[in-house]
TrEMBL record:
Membrane topology: Multi-pass membrane protein
Main location: membrane
Highest taxon of source: Bacteria
Keyword Transferase carried by entry: no
Name assigned to this protein: Branched-chain amino acid transport system carrier protein
Family: Belongs to the branched chain amino acid transporter family.
Gene expressing this chain: brnQ
Transmembrane segments: 12-29, 41-68, 80-100, 120-139, 151-170, 190-212, 232-252, 282-304, 316-335, 341-365, 372-394, 414-432
UniProtKB keywords: Amino-acid transport, Cell membrane, Membrane, Transmembrane, Transmembrane helix, Transport
Amino acid sequence: MKRKLPLKEVSALGFFMFALFLGAGNLIFPPLLGQQAGDTIVAAVVGFLLTGVGLPLLAVIAIAQAGGHFDTLFKRVHPIFALVFPFVVYLSIGPFFGIPRTGTVAYEIGVVPFLSGEDRIGLLLSTLVFFSVTFWMALHPAKLVDRVGKVLTPILFLFILMMAIRSFAAPIGDIGEATEKYESGAFIDGFLEGFLTMDAIGALAFGIVIIYRIQEKGITEPTDIRKYTIKAGIIAGIGLSFVYIALAYMGATSVSGVGLQENGGDILTAVTSQLFGGLGSAILAVVVTLACLTTSIGLVSACGEFLALRLKKVPYPWIIAVLCLFSFLMANLGLDQLISVSLPVLIAIYPITIVLIALALLHAVIPVASSVYIGAMIGAGLVSVVDGLMMAGIEIDAVSKLYAHLPMFDLGVGWLLPSVAGGLLGLIFRLAKRGRRRKTDIL
């Protein structure tokens, strides 16, 4: 008899997925978008949701369609790609960038406002507690849904709901005018802002975590795994959309009260102080700390389970202990230097990830040849690697001038057309190869 998950368990999975995606960065993007979009906020938010929510959920679905295994998806490209690319993804979003950053952001927004100022001892103690809790929570992956989806996330969502209700019921001002950036083409600008969150990379890692949690509940049929993954994704998507809309509205109505700010963190801090007075800092501290903690737990667990599969002789607890210790050290000693290396890598691999997701979804409908995967990814990579080098401060003038003629290169999506062209060349190669084989058989 097939095992069915009750609505309570599906909801917990959805809240768990919601918490994995809602990191501190996701709290900061929408208020800035809302403040800059002003009276064009509806178009801007719709564009943002399509890529900021839709793209990561499509990535999770793509993993589910591939049976919940990285190898199945990546081997469609090439065995060497399947060996190397997952390591690059996990290390980049995990210990080399995402995990240490969660600890420092939780300290800067959740702790510093209550101190006389930033100090090394405060950072040391804060991150020590933060990563100790992360280690303890991630130590038993099978308990993650209960601990995160049923306990931490409802608390996080309750505080965000409190902020949303207050901002809608008593906004600190009227919706302002759009800045020059959003006066025309607000939808496209919002679309690109959602794209640049780079959540689809995290989705590749989180997708595996979600699918493992479903399998641990006795769901083993691929069709059922896909069904419950999609249901959890819909719940997470609704939650994320609500949060992003609320935060964008807070930003859009904040200009008259707090003025134009340079980043979303400053907007959130100023708005919560206006809305809640002295309690504002405490409410924001709880929201940001929980958002950082749930993301940290998810990243440590995802990286730990991936490395445990690859390093079969090393136990999972040892792996996550090393991940947490490394992240703790980097948060205190050298996060800026680590980010300066990791961020260009993320910029370089993100378009390749998008192409992989798109082709994986297409593959679920019609088989896609390996040559198409390879061609499309080479096309995207030729441009995205240059984007990564430019982010690292390395610019090759001749190449930059050539790529400047690509459509939307200045917007960060110049890789799109070369990727399509590479995929078509891969398809032509595949058809030509098949034609030669048929001709040989006839002869």
